[in-house]
Model the fold of this input.
Amino acid sequence: MTDVVPHALTEVASGAPIDVDPRKAVSARTLAREQFLVTAGQVAAGAGNLAFALLMVRVLDRRGFTHLAVFLASYLLIHLPGTSFGAGTALRFNCLPGSPSTLGESTRP
Done:
């Protein structure tokens, strides 16, 4: 008979188990810091995109910038939904056909 573990343990490359209990209380300060870092990264990426666009406006002629804008817009329209589906699948991988839980196999070792 197997014992039920109240929280999950994961082994890292060193072989030492680390605690990854999802029910562990996290302070509001920690959550705010994480969200601030994510927001700061998004702002920095947006500033980089703006700098690139302004540079390309100066370097390219109208026709060249139009081609660049169309390429970037089409890339965004194609890439973004695929990334979203990939992220959703990573969160709920057992909903895919052929996943271990749909074949009757256990997802836990």
Summary: The longest strand covers residues 9-11. The radius of gyration is 22 Å. The chain has two helices and two strands.
